[in-house]
Structures are given as C-alpha cells and as structure tokens.
Amino acid sequence: MEENLNFLEVKNYSEAEVRELSPLALAYIGDACFEILVRSEILDIRKNPNKLHRESIRYVRAKGQRELFEKIEDLLTEDEMRIFKRGRNAKSHTVPKNADPIDYRIATGVEALYGYLYLLKRYDRIRDLFKEMIG
Predict the structure, then answer these.
(1) Where does residue 43 fall: left (phi above 0), alpha (psi -120 to 50 degrees), or beta otherwise?
(2) In this predicted model, what pLDDT tens digit does every residue of 91-133 receive, in sequence order?
(3) Which residues are catalytic?
(4) Which residues lie below 8 Å from residue 108, measured CB to CB, with a gap of 6+?
(5) Assigned CATH for 13-134
(6) Which of 16, 33, 84, 113 sees the fewest Cβ atoms within 10 Å?
(7) Closest Cα to residue 75, out of 33, 132, 124, 30?
(8) What is the pLDDT of residue 97?
C-alpha cells in the first residue's frame, strides 16, 4: 500500500513532533486518511456516486468506526493504544446530532490513530490495520 499513498506524501515529521500535535489535529488528518482508504476499498465502476456515498457512510460514521475498531483493538501496540486513547479522550465540544457520544469519541480515537500512523509514514501498518477492520 505504500506505493498507493505516495501521492499523499507529507513532509517528514519526527515522532516527537507528531506526539506534540493535539489529538484533534491527529484526528483531523486521520479522518482524511481513513476516508480515502474506505473510498478506495468500495470503489466500483458499476455504482453511481450516490450508492458509493451511502456505502462509505457505513464505514466512516461514528458507529461504523466503533464497530471496526473492535476488530483491531487487541492488535494495537501500547504506543498505538496510547494515541487512540488520547484521541478518544479529547474534548471536541461537538457531537453530530445523529451520533452516540461514546461512538463519536471512539471514532475520534480511531482517526487520531490513523493520523499518527500517516504522519509517521507507517503505511504498512495503516494497510494491515485497515485490512483487519474491513476483512
């Protein structure tokens, strides 16, 4: 998958720089990373954009991300779990009206984890976790 993410190449961040980012900043970039993975996974020439959008929502909405997280929770390293928990525990001050607050917090943790891995260019790990989530 590394070659698939080259067009998304980011500047080189040290681990210390990434750890200094707020968990909501990590979730911000992780949301985009996760979204592109989902869209790439479900892309099918036989589906119109409306069908693709509805299918992607299953994965990217808070409840979907919580359900997907449950598949990888036991696979995370201590470091990854620490990043997830930072994201989960971040105070976002907003929760979408159609989302359960607990699901939303878990989804923010998932997005923070993906942002962390993405900024550190751990593309193989992103691929492995995503495969487990959707497999």
Answers:
(1) beta
(2) 877 777 788 999 999 999 999 999 999 999 999 999 999 999 9
(3) 31
(4) 23, 24, 27, 87, 88, 90, 92
(5) 1.10.1520.10
(6) 16
(7) 132
(8) 78
